[in-house]
Every structure is written in structure tokens, then in C-alpha cells.
Amino acid sequence: MTRLFNTPAAFADEALEGFVAAHRRWVRRVPGGVVRATPTAPGQVAVVIGGGSGHYPAFSGLVGRGLAHGAAVGNVFASPSAQQVHQVAKAAHGGGGVLLTFGNYAGDVLHFGQAEERLNAEGIDCRTVVVTDDISSAPAEESAKRRGVAGDLAVFKTAAAAAEAGLPLDEVVRLARLANARTRSFGIAFSGCTLPGADAPLFTVPESRMAVGLGIHGEPGLSEAAVPTADEAAELLVSTLLGELPEGVETPRGLRAGVILNGLGAVKYEELFVVYRTVARLLDEAGVVAVDPEVGELVTSFDMAGVSLTLFWLTEELEPLWTAPADAPAYRKGALGPTADVSPESPENPESPEEQPEQTTVPQASEESRAAARTVLDALAAVVRTVDEHADELGRIDAVAGDGDHGIGMRRGSEAAYEAGRRALGLGAGAGTLLCHAADAWADRAGGTSGALWGVILRQVGTALGDADRPDAAAVATGVAAAADGVMRLGKAEVGDKTMVDVLVPLAGALGEAVAEGQPLAAAWDAAATAAEAAAKATAELLPRLGRARPHAEKSLGTPDAGAVSLALIARAVHGVLAAKND
Amino acid sequence: MTRLFNTPAAFADEALEGFVAAHRRWVRRVPGGVVRATPTAPGQVAVVIGGGSGHYPAFSGLVGRGLAHGAAVGNVFASPSAQQVHQVAKAAHGGGGVLLTFGNYAGDVLHFGQAEERLNAEGIDCRTVVVTDDISSAPAEESAKRRGVAGDLAVFKTAAAAAEAGLPLDEVVRLARLANARTRSFGIAFSGCTLPGADAPLFTVPESRMAVGLGIHGEPGLSEAAVPTADEAAELLVSTLLGELPEGVETPRGLRAGVILNGLGAVKYEELFVVYRTVARLLDEAGVVAVDPEVGELVTSFDMAGVSLTLFWLTEELEPLWTAPADAPAYRKGALGPTADVSPESPENPESPEEQPEQTTVPQASEESRAAARTVLDALAAVVRTVDEHADELGRIDAVAGDGDHGIGMRRGSEAAYEAGRRALGLGAGAGTLLCHAADAWADRAGGTSGALWGVILRQVGTALGDADRPDAAAVATGVAAAADGVMRLGKAEVGDKTMVDVLVPLAGALGEAVAEGQPLAAAWDAAATAAEAAAKATAELLPRLGRARPHAEKSLGTPDAGAVSLALIARAVHGVLAAKND
Predict the structure, then answer these.
(1) Has UniProt tagged this entry with the keyword Cytoplasm (chains A, B) (predicted)?
(2) Among A218, A227, A246, A301, which residue's Cα sits nearest to residue A135?
(3) Does B61 touch chain A (CB under 8 A)?
(4) CA-CA 20 to 30 A from A84: which of A10, A564, B159, B310?
(5) pLDDT in tens, A451-499
(6) CATH 3.40.50.920 assigned to A367-582
(7) Beta-carbon separation of B273 and A17 below 8 A
(8) The listed CATH number (3.30.1180.20, 2.70.70.10, 3.40.50.300, 3.40.190.290) that belongs to domain B178-194+209-326
């Protein structure tokens, strides 16, 4: 369990700050994450990695010469926001284009994808390569749906060495994809992880049992088995991975493989070595040559007790990239020239990233819209209170089928939205502008899938309200309907997928109907909130859309979706504000 | 807790084997431990470190260019034997002499000291430097009694860099002592460690409490306090260390210090970074410049949840040694030339050390002595059974004031002694030679303080019995009396110090008296065993001699000494064999 923290909400930021303070020779802080202490060589492709916090050394510990040029660092188990990825990529870019590479999780795909679009729109050539090495998360025929786990390192290392060798972006992308296609991981776990401030692990495994086929966000495994001896564990890991060789390969005999025996967080080095002893023997017996094996913690899942094995099937082209020198805080290999001369005498080196310059002007707004903006801010305050009250509960619900970070993300997002709204109101913003500022702040600060989607919701409603007129019920209904469309498009989800869409669509529908019937806003919203509550409850009967990628989806039957529940709670809280306004 | 192992007794050996398999570019296995993969440069001082297993990266992970030349690796939490240290030192020696450096623990002091004597006797110039950085283990006036914890790294690094720079042994010793005198550590813990196969931690800390001033062998702390925030923990660590500056220094302002924020085993990197963030700020505020800070696991205590801070107060002479490049499996800094070319294609590289050539001849023995040797072997078998039956209990008793490894050490030692005895008997050995072979095997295989002392006991008795005559009661009594003298001399212990001496002396006395009265051996031994049992019980009322170095000594009041109890148990088991022989 996690014991050393100040406030749980600040944990990821404070850890990153301390990490940078301890590793100035390798990295420097930029808005959104870290980049190498040394600038990217002109014309070199910049490899930018990233993901949630709680996986150290992934991702910030893997930034340095011969490895990543930068890492976008999200909150605990939450993807960084598109803005963070964009900022880190801009800081890392050396004129040779950018490769964004990360594990295959919905939130990361969303935010890195948005950043890619934005970078390309700005004239920076940018591509993404998604890591999908976890063979327990989908069958081989659907390997694109697999999660990324410790195989991240094989793909990152390959891409970075190719970039370091001066290859153009097309080649770096091709080699990174090849590395991903030839990397397979499989793991076991003995206990789940406990996030800072949480009072229970995300999942538990009965004493003397283990979970087989785990994820790195506290997702429980595919199945359970008795705790094995170290030798039996090694046999399970090796035989499972030898059971799925790269396409077109018949026998492992004579193959060469990069090997990563990865501790998930609470397994001791000595235990890993005892397991590796037998992994090495079994690979040798199978005729596989282990090249530059790595035994240690590379991609962790906070304090989860577990271990995974990764085999990276090398080719003549890939091997020199795997064995090339690298010098990152948590990964060093071979010899590189001297590191950046960052004098230890300079603790005054800027530690905190420069914040985005705060906006100091807002578009002109009518008196009516500025009055409405006050109500909107009251509504945001109610959202903060509701989220705060229910954060633990939302986290628990989310932990059943997700990664348990929903409460944290919603809290960070809603607080940031309120703060941005307050600042906008102070500058004289109308209701529309206030909501757009709040939207950006929520998406940026919360990260994760839900952060991006709440950004869409607030922005669509804000756009519909505008800054000119007193917002009427029709404008609100139009905005909410647009929000539902936007969320479905961006989240690639439909009704029945057990997401917030299952609540947002009926909410928009009920609101639209009531408004069309001529009901005033507060009454119409009451009907919409009631529909939302019923719909949220009903999600308990659904299976999540990501069923295959999250093999424990069945376990969520009987539990509603956390995103759906929080949306219904928020709808009810907003009604409270509208009803009070009406009085 | 430790989950991945095969048999607990094989854990340390198997971990070392896996470690070497994963790190062939850095190290190779030799009898007793590991040495660098590259030979020591001719004439260079060889720095040999070591200690028990369970502290990874200490000690094997700290072997490599710029760091140690070799590490002697004992069993879990048990010092390596003198023979192991001797073997590693011989393998590492490059003609420039040997520095043995290690933490200040009774078993290590004993075995490294014996190895030093033996190396010097063989014409290899050898010295020892003991690390004593843990300020919680004794007051400043008695700093020589302090334990060695994570400050090990500062002393090892200094000595190794001095050796690498080509300095002679005198200078390397001087600089290592200077480094030790300027290194201070202090730590806190939230839970004790659980050894492989054990079903409970060595100590527990109540929920939401922490132990202040911990050891690295599961020794509980000096006092207890409420679990602090990360910032409060940082403040406690920094202010405590700033409270004891190096001799002659009035203020920390303007000083430069190597900083080690060390995880004890079950604290996550992210937590360490959150703490380091504030450590860095507080040092900066105190005017201390942190030079090459290290934040991570450097000297662990198995899976103990805790953290320690080390400040290494640099001088102009010491700083370049602290910042010099190094390349070991678990510690790298700066850039060194290419590592040894150990082809990954060669899994046939010898992995297991060549064992000591087995002795194939023994001195001639009389028929009577060979017959007595059979009885001696029966007695050793009885010792094995007794130790095996009581190993868990002995470990539990030892954990009250010691490190809980007594049962493990006794088991390994007695088994090795029996095996060596069996081989000797097969070669026709007499009782004296059989016991001397058993003595060497016990000391070598068990390591730790008790291993060395049991080696002395068996050897003294064996010497008294000889191989010529049928051993009579007088010879046995003479041998046991000599054993008591030998143990007191080597262990520097007296009656009343709460050690096995408190049983061995009355046992020898009762045996001598009964034999002088003319009682036959079995009867005399019965009286001796009875005296031993009473004496063992009485040790519960004593305070351990190492009271100051082990500040929790008071906690052992009411519990007998584990070494005393095992000696009494063994005395009774041997009586069983003698009585049966008599029938």
C-alpha cells in the first residue's frame, strides 16, 4: 500500500517534481511532462512516449539519450490530456517530426490522437504507434485490441534507437510497428495495487492464489490458479509466450530475443532473479538466445505484486536497435558520451513548468449572458461538490471493470473547470465563453477518457449558449444534444456499450422533449435528470464495449458504469441550481 | 511478503544464479560470490564488499567497473563465511592488495576479519573498513558501534573510485575511513520484512504508526510515531541528519553532500520522489548543495516498507570520488568505455562456481576412532533432526532481538556438517578428522556469527578426540572445555552477555565435574545437557551485550537467546545418541 504522500490529488505532480529534482542530468520539466536535458538534434525524429503515472520507470524514467525524447505524464493511471501531449511534443520536436508511442488504452488513444491531429495541423509531421503486446487481453486474430504492458520498452527502445541513428520518420514508424508486431508479454499477479489515499486494493486475489493474465492498471487477470513455485511460474510464462510465435515462424529454435522479466511493483529483485534463473534455462533449452536481458522493474502497476515476461523476437534489423546504447534515469545500456552539464550548484534551475499564459481578456458578452454565466458558475460549483462527495464511491464502481481512477479524474477535472470558470467570470465572460474555458481546463487537468469527453460536453453546451443572449431552455437543449453527438463521435461509443453515452442520450432526449412541450428549463431539466438516473442504473445490466480488450468485463455485470453514474449525479446537482434560481 | 521462491533454503543461491545469468556483461560467478566480468587491472587495489542476501542491489548489484571488484554473498540476512570472503578476495585480487569493506554487524566483522587474517598470512596485503553510518544505532560518542546501512554505498563508491584511480592500499583505506566518518543515515519504516517461506514479518508496526530509526535486518526501530505525510517524513529525515554534522563543522550552510534517499524494499519510486521533492527543498534552504543525488533502492531490507536518508558530507578530496563514473548492474553513473565482450551467444559460460576440490584422502585413523566416528555421525544426524524440528521456533526467538535468521543458518550449517561427516566417514576418517571436516562445512555453509562459532566448537572437540584412540569421557570433556574457551575468544563474549556462551560454559563445567567424579560419558553428558537447559532458560533474564548497537535490546527481556536455546537442544539430542549407544 502507498504510505508516503501528502494529498492524494497532488501525488502524481509531486512525484514528477521530485523525479526531476533528482535527475537534472537527464531530464527537464516542461508543461505536460518532461523532455531530455539535452536538446533534440536538429532534424532528428523526436520520440514522445507517455501515459498515466504510477508505472515508474514508465514513462518519465525512460526519457534520455538513446531512449525517448520526451514523456507526457498524466495523473495516476490516467492518460495525459491532448494538450499535455501536444506541449511535450512541441518541446521535444527538433524539426524531424514526432512519433507518439504509447500503450493501447482508450484514454491514451483519444488524447494522443487529438495531439497528433493538432501537431499535423500546425505543420509538424506526426504519427502514432500503439503498443499491443499483452497476449492475455485479446486473441492473436484481434491483436490490435491488445493492451500495452512491459512490451512498451521494446517498442520505445526500437523507435528511439532508429531516431538516434538519424532515420526519417517513415522508417522510425515502420521499425516501431515491426517491433510491436514481434513483442509479446504475459503476466501473473498475487495482489492488486492500492492507489494513494485509497483504503483497499483495486482487486484482491485470495491467499495462496494468483491471477493469470493481468493488466497494469489493477485490472484483475483472466483466470486464477494456485500460487506456483518460482520454477513453475517461469515455466508458465515461457511456455505461454512460446505458444504464440511471430507470424510465419514455426519453431523458436535458433531465434534471438530481447527478454524483459518485469516486476509489477511489489516483487523483490531477488524473487525476479530466482524466476529468471529458470526462464534463462528454459529459453536456452528451447534454442532461444536471450539478448541483453532486462530483469527488474520497467513498467510497474503501482504496488501490485506480480511479474510479467516479455519476449521481443529480434531480426537482423531490430537487434542493433535493441542493443544500442541508452542513458535514461531508469534505463542505461552501453556507453554514451558525457551527459548534459547541468551543474548541481543550480537548484534554482526552473523546476516547475511555465504554465500556459493565463488568458487575460475574453470576448465581449451581453449583460444577460454575464448574468447567466453566474448561474453556470454556481452549477460548476455544485458539480465540484457532488463529485467530491461521491469520488470514493465512483472509484469503487470504476474499479470493478476499469482502473479505479474515475473519482480522481472527475475531481481534478471539475475543480479545474470551476477555477477556470471563476477566472473567466472575473474577466467579464459570458456563459458561452465561461463554459468553453471550463471545458479546456477539465480536459487538460483530468486527462483520461472521461476528461476528454467532459471537455466536449461543456464546450458543446457553451457553444450553443454563446455570449450574446440570455440562454433559454431551447439553447440548453440544443447544446446537450450536440454534446451527446460529440461524445459518441469522439468516444466511438454507442448506446448499449455501457458508457456515459447510455445516460447522455436519454438525458438529451428527455430534455429536448420537455422543452418542446414548452416546459421551463428547471422543470425540463428535472425530467432529464430523472431519465438520466434511471438510465445510469440500467447500465448495470450491460457488458462494456471493451469486452475483449478487458477480459474481466463479465465481472462488471450487476455494477453500473462509473461514467454513467457520475453523469446522472451531475445532472441532478445541476437541477438543484436551476431550481433554486427559479425560486 | 515473498511469494516467488522454490525452497526457502535455496533462495539466496538461486537468486544469485539468476542475477548472474541476467548480468553477464558485468559480473561472473566465483565460489563465495561474484567478481567483475573484467579482470582487476594489475596492481590495482581490489575492493571486496559483501554481506547477507536480501539487501539487493547490495551487494552483488554493486560489482562493476568504478564500483566493487567483488562481493561475497551470504545467505538471507547472514554474513558470508570467512571462506567465501577469502575465495572472492582471491578471485578479485590483482596484485595491489585487497580492501574488505562491509557493514558493522557481528557476523560480518567475524568472518571478514578471519578472511583478512588468512589473506595476510598468505602474503596478500589486506585491510578492512567497517561502515557505521546509522545514527540511530548508537550515540555519536560511540559511533564505532553503529550499524552500516545505505551509507555502505558512499563508502564503497569512494574506496572503489580511489582504487580505480590507481591509489595504493594505504590511501584507499584512508579515503574509505574518511568517507565513513562523513556519512550519516537515518530511516523510518512502516512494516517489517517477511523472509521467504516465513508466515509472518520479523516485526510489525501498528496500522498508521511508523518505526523511527530502523535497521536493515528487520530490526524494529528506536521508537514509534504516527505515520507522517511525505513532507513531514522528509522534514524528520533532514532535520535529524542536520542535527549531527561531521566533526568540527558548525553549520551546514555552504556544504556539499552526496544524497541517498533509499527505499527499503516495499516503497514505490513515486513515493520516494514525493519525499525527495521536499528533501531537495529543505537541503537547499539549509544551504546544502546536493551532489549527484540517488533516489531509489540501493540497500534494501527485503520487502520492508521504509525509507532512509543518507548524507555524505563531501570534501574537495571526496567529491571527485563520489562523482566518478561507475558501471555496475544496479548503479551506473557517467560514461565508461565498452563493457566486457561477453557474447550473449554463450549461455554455456560457466554459471556455477567451481566448487572447492573435494578432499579425497583423510589421515590414517585407528579402528577404535573409526568406530567412534560412526557415533559422531549419528550425533550429527540427530543435530540435523533437532535443528530441523525447531528451526521455525529458533527463527521466531531470534527475531525478538536479532534478525530472525538463526533457524535458517543452523539448518544449513548442520546439514552441511552432516554431509561433510558422511563423506569423511566414507573415506575412512577417524572421529577427530570427521569433526574437523564437519566444522569447516558448518562454518562455510551457515555463515553468520553462529556458523563461525559452531565451526570452532566442532573443531575443538575434534582436535581433542583425535584419530588414534577410542575417545573417552575425559577427551570429550577436554574438547568441550576448549570449545567454550574458543567461542569466548572468537565471539568476544563472556558469561552474562546473553549469547551461547551462557550455555556452553555451564555445559562444559557440568561435564567436566561429572567426568571428574568418574561418571561414564552418557551419564556425564546427561548432567551437562540438564545444566545447559537450565542455563538456556535463564538467558531470558539477561540483556544482550550489543545493547547499544541494538537499541531494541530491552525488547528481548523475557525471551531466551536463540543461540543459547539451540545449543541446549543440540546437547540434549546428542545425549540421546550417547545413551542409545550405551544400551
Answers:
(1) no
(2) A246
(3) yes
(4) A564
(5) 889 998 998 999 999 998 888 999 999 999 999 998 988 777 889 888 8
(6) no
(7) yes
(8) 3.30.1180.20
